[in-house]
Amino acid sequence: MRTRIDDHRAARPRQGFTLIEVLIVTVVLGLLASLAIPAFLGQRNKANDAAAKSLVRSAVSAVEAAFADTQKYDDVTVARVQAIEPNIAFDATADDARANQVAVAFSADGFTIASTSFSGTRFIFTKDITATPTVARTCDRGPTCQW
Question: What does pTM read for this prediction?
Answer without folding.
Answer: 0.73
